[in-house]
Amino acid sequence: MQEIAEGIVVSSEFRRITVGAIATGSGVICVDVPPFPADARRWHSKLLEHFKQPIYAVVLTDAQRDRLLGLHWFEEAIIVAHDAAMTAMRQLPQGFIDQSADLLATDSDERFSFLGVRLVYPRVTFSTRLTLHCGAAAIPIMAMPGPTPGNVWIHLPDQRVVFTGDSVVVGTPPYMARPQSKAWLESLTLLRRPRFAADVIVPGRGPLTTKEATQPLSEFLRYVRRRVQNLYRAGRGRAELLNLLPEVLALLEIPPGEADDVERRIRAGLDAIYDEFVAEEHHDHAHTPPPLPLE
User: For the chain, what percent of residues have pLDDT higher than 90?
Assistant: First the structure.
């Protein structure tokens, strides 16, 4: 656990995601929670011991699987999420917990630890902005287009801290599960502007980072968008995306043991960006005025 400002702690010691917490004096507001049961219970205990305050709320920075599994251990908290995150959660299959446990567990004991875990849904959702009040504290949460449905940021300008969720990741390839890469790039551009008050960026995965360090992510997204756009404009079908996959993977530093997962992730990202260009073209055609009648 690392204290990055008074009453604000983060941890990247747990598997899969980076988590944080904000102590308000009346309660603790968590920003995401660890997915594995043992890690989630340990984080819960650490926060109670460190702050001597109850857990008041958990803010989900998106509805990606890794952010949902640990909510079971924070049931006393108000779960807060974007409307799109709630929609995504409602669409999860009935066996979501079991499927996730089968995929993530490293041995039978860890698989057993997921027995009885249930999905906890948000009690509070919003569309654009929300201020979460706890005691005298007012925590601003804002929807920011990113790689996943319902991506939100928690921006604390007085402390110059921002939690970005998977809009920014460090030490792992990005997730690109939603066809909005153009808007995601605009979010990153906003983040890097001098007037955006944030010296410390808490990414969705990996250690703390800075504004300048997000530039390579933007460059990667622009490159991938350009390659997919060229393919689409040339009239090449979706199947041709597989030919781009080795080229894109070669640009990434892939952590040991994650090659298959990263390949699936990037393949889904290429599909999402392709869908983005399809939607843009259909939108342009739908808004093209009809030709003037001949006289």
Answer: 86
Question: Is 281's pLDDT higher than 80?
Answer: no
Long-range CB contacts (< 8 A, 24+ apart) of 17-21? 17/66, 17/67, 17/204, 17/205, 18/202, 18/203, 18/204, 18/205, 18/206, 18/207, 19/43, 20/163, 20/202, 21/47, 21/51
Could you tell me if residue 295 is inside a domain? no
Same domain, 163 and 233: no
Q: pLDDT, tens digit, for every residue of 205-241?
A: 999 999 999 999 999 999 999 999 999 999 998 899 9
Range of the domain at 244: 219-285
End-to-end Cα separation, the chain, in angstroms? 75
In this structure, the number of other CB atoms found within 10 A of the CB of residue 84 comes to: 19
Do residues 163 and 255 share a domain? Answer: no
How many domains are contained in the chain?
2
- Are residues 181 and 230 both part of a single domain? no
Question: Phi, psi (5° rounding) for residue 200?
Answer: -120, 125
- Read off the pLDDT of residues 148-192 as tens digits, 9 standing for 90 and up: 889 999 999 999 999 999 999 998 999 887 778 999 999 999 999
Cβ-based neighbour number of residue 232 at 10 Å: 21
Domain match, 201 and 243 both? no
Q: What CATH number should be reported for the domain holding residue 186?
A: 3.60.15.10
Is-contact 184 146, C-beta < 8 A?
A: yes
Residue 292 has pLDDT above 80, yes or no: no
Confidence at 256, pLDDT banded by 50, 70, 90: confident
Q: Last residue of a domain, which of 162, 188, 212? A: 212
Query: Which one, of 186, 91, 114, lies nearest residue 143 by Cα?
Result: 186
Last residue of a domain, one of 212, 230, 252: 212
Amino acid at 100: S
Q: Are 144 and 178 in contact (CB under 8 A)?
A: no
Per-residue pLDDT at 295? 35
